[in-house]
Design brief:
Pfam families: Sulfatase. GO terms for molecular function: arylsulfatase activity. Belongs to the sulfatase family. Keywords: Hydrolase. This protein has about 525 residues and is α/β, with parallel strands linked by helices. An eight-stranded mixed sheet has the order 4-3-5-1-6-9-2-10, sandwiched between helices. Strands 11-12-13-14 form a four-stranded antiparallel sheet. Strand 12 and strand 13 form a beta hairpin. Helix 8 runs parallel beside helix 11 and helix 9 crosses helix 11. It has a single domain, classed as Alkaline Phosphatase, subunit A, CATH 3.40.720. The termini are far apart. Helices cover about 30% and strands about 15% of the residues. The C terminus is likely disordered.
Length: about 525
Amino acid sequence: MTAESPENVLFVVMDTVRKDHLTPYGHDRPTTPGLDRFADEATVFEQAVAPAPWTLPVHASLFTGMYPSQHGADQENPYLEGATTLAETLSAAGYDTACYSSNAWITPYTHLTDGFAEQDNFFEVMPGEFLSGPLAKAWKTMNDSDALRTLADKLVSLGNTAHEYLAGGEGADSKTPAVIDQTIDFVDGSEEFFAFVNLMDAHLPYHPPEEYKERFAPGVDSTEVCQNSKEYNAGAHEIGDDEWEDIRGLYDAEIAHIDDQLTRLFDHLKETDRWDDTMVVVCADHGELHGEHGLYGHEFCLYDPLINVPLMVKHPGLDADRRDDQVELVDLYHTVLDSLDVEGGEPANPGDDAVGLDRTRSLLSADYREFAQASNDDPGQRRDGEYAFVEYSRPVVELKQLEEKASSAGITLPEDSRFYSRMRAARRTDAKYVRIDRIPDEAYRIDADPEESENVVDSDDEAIAETEAALTEFEAAIGGAWTDALDTDVSDDSVDQMDDEAQDRLRDLGYLE
């Protein structure tokens, strides 16, 4: 913490936004003029790495300071359990805390909102209408029954499918303005605050407001382009160059809408004299693939467009500049604690794991990443701090949908494929090594090959060898390498145990045929 450290924190996650579609990162379309101005006041990080390529484990890491294997939140266990959150720690320290989002993963049901005194989820269906009636009963049954536990991933992830069915099309409303409105109301009524917002516009499907669509995708009908990544990934739908261009235009339009709404929030903080006394963090939880490596969306891989994410931080202790050193999103947990001078580490509930402030993990510290020695408590403290680590346990819900799309097209997915694989990666600014449990490992010299087009896993490259060695050390510290492939059967027999009304609701939302 510096003597001039702000009293407040605004933490913004732009869900599914890849950095090369933002103006501060060199995008040739004016998607984010507001963030471009923000970048003039902030530190822009070129090499920020997410701990996973999708929402739930990344947010759990942001809120706990733990890697995914430590906090355990993934689709096979879609809850954050037994860990004290950043919001719980800051609420106990006297800060007003709030979380606003339209992401179906960030709800009380996954425990990601634990500790936030104020929270609202603007998802089209949850939590009001969706988690009432038969599905509310099903949810309670699942929490009480090990046999039904595996169905929980379907319920909390209905956002992805329900957006397509219920929030899609030309009349779709973005929830971002409502998120921003509530955030403004919250900060206006707070003394010292920690406000967290997640903005979902750039997540599939892309149905931007008309004025933004006309600027970035004129003449494109968003209902006519492929909005289902599983159809493409399964090989059931081909996308040509023109359609990819239309998809990317819609994606840019969604990002432009986010930018306008963030600018509205930033302008309000300035007009009410809260700006200078607020640390502002803007990042993405993960990116998105638009055909690169033959993939669409953010599943089944750890390529850089997914994990090398945008990160900008405004704080008087940081220079308004660009940084090329590698940082991890996990470090933001410690950065927030450091900025607010809160030590943390006190369990909110008996038996909780609680991570205390480590200033070698704080972006504000002069000792940042000067790890004195390897730590069993922090498996990421390997070697000289130049490595970032990423974990990816297979996405059960997406995999089930992928299988269904493949089957309907008469396609059989090979069992020894990336679709059924778990992955871990070690990354430094010049090299990446990815351990994969069903197919050959991947390694890239990302300094010379930023597109990750040539797998050099079998080379004698020293940087690759060092990166694999760092990954091996991380795996040993985190509990062992994933060497035994999981069973390919991802069917869920527990669906049969639900009542007819609950099954009908899942069928309406596309989870059952």
